[in-house]
Amino acid sequence: MSAWLVVIGIGEEGWSALSGAMQALIESAALVVGGERHLALIPKGRYETLAWKSPLADTLPAIARRRGQRVVVLASGDPFCYGVGAVLARRFTRDEMIVLPAPSAFSLVAARLLWPLEDCVCLSFHARPLERLRLHLAPAARIIALSNDGRTPGKVAQLLRESGWGDSQLMVFEHLGGPREHRIEAIAAEWHTERVADLNTIALHCVVGPGAKPLSRCAGLPDDAFHHDGQITKHAVRAATLAALAPLPGELLWDIGAGCGSVTIEWLRAARGMEAIAIERDKARAALIADNAAQLGVPDIEIVCGDAPGTLVGLPAPDAIFIGGGVSNAAIWDAVWQSLRPGGRIVANAVSLAGEAALFLRHETLGGELSRIAVAQAENHRFWRQSMQVTQLVVAKPR
């Protein structure tokens, strides 16, 4: 089938900024789909118009029913940069679609500030948790973010002040790329504008303040980065555990017996597009996991509260599994081995004699690498204080 669905990026300048070919495609369409703001930017014609429903996916059946007719979808800037293009691509094929992008808000901000875009972190807060910003706070980092609404910049400023980054430079661009474009600029600590235009883009140049605690994305965050009740994989062992889990972008982890969520959270911080499910039977600890995840910039964590292996039924197949609790439970091992994707990894830690014996047994049946992790710290410059030794099994499932 030839392409019938045309996706056109449109900016604040509207109709006049579109090429003649783009205008002709719109004028010849049977149906034009877009947000109310987008539809208001084009002249009335013979075509029908349809505003997006919420959620956007609810509009896709109406578009699909016009298959074979010319349908134009209007999108903000670049449709595949936090835009509607991804939603459409999940439903329609490349042969059916033509995409004609305009400059994205990220490109326009980078051009205004002379920031190389490849050096910037590009985020969207549109219907996404603001806590995601915490993951990217780093000395001299340049961040460009799409706002959810006119109150988003004020919320960003408050988050920066409360986390010790109040000296950071905050720039907000209203109606970017159009005749009403306007910039508001101040350091976060002195930001007093309660509301700006709903259509705005944020640029942030991070500056470390006295109260800031910059955190590395490498494994082994300090233990005091997490709220916990003592049930935590200590930072040196956690670093070794994450290295054994070997996270790759876009992979899914199951963390069984997650405690305060330290391993899960560091997995999510490790690379782009990471996913994780923390399984924890204690409700108070599950609440700690959610709090820690938000504070450390990965609020999208999934938490399942209950006992394994029952809670594992129906979960998506993981690429890696960490067993921090229940290593002596044969039913858990049977369930995780069956669920693990081919080529996936299991890492299990034990400190008790019973847990160690269980790992010896699994090593005999599954193979893998069995090791012991021992950490000692100098105390009072006089002697070493030995931490509890951890026995660790690392095993990969054949492809």
What's this model, at a glance?
With 399 residues, the chain is an alpha/beta fold.
Basic shape? globular
Main β-sheet description:
7 strands, mixed
Percent helix, as a range, is: 10-25%
In order across it, which strands form the biggest sheet?
Answer: 13-12-11-14-15-19-16
Low-confidence stretches: none
In N-to-C order, the SSE pattern is EHEHEHEHEHEEHEEEHEHEHEEHEHEEEE
Radius of gyration: 26 Å
Give an overview of the whole structure:
By secondary structure, the chain is α/β, with parallel strands linked by helices. 25% of the residues lie in helices and 24% in strands. The chain is built from eleven helices and 19 strands. The chain starts with a strand and ends with a strand. The relative contact order is 0.08. The mean pLDDT is 95.
Q: Key terms for this structure?
A:
399 residues, alpha/beta, Methyltransferase, Cobalt-precorrin-4 Transmethylase, Domain 2, Rossmann fold, 7-stranded mixed sheet, 5-stranded parallel sheet, 11 helices
Layout: helices, strands, pairs:
Blueprint: E1 5-10, H1 20-27, E2 31-34, H2 36-39, E3 48-51, H3 60-64, E4 71-76, H4 85-89, E5 97-100, H5 105-113, E6 120-124, E7 142-146, H6 152-162, E8 169-174, E9 182-187, E10 200-205, H7 235-245, E11 252-256, H8 262-270, E12 275-280, H9 283-295, E13 302-305, E14 320-323, H10 330-339, E15 345-350, H11 353-366, E16 369-373, E17 376-379, E18 383-386, E19 390-396
Parallel strand pairs: 1-4, 1-5, 2-3, 2-4, 6-7, 11-12, 11-14, 12-13, 14-15
Antiparallel strand pairs: 7-10, 8-9, 8-10, 15-19, 16-19, 17-18
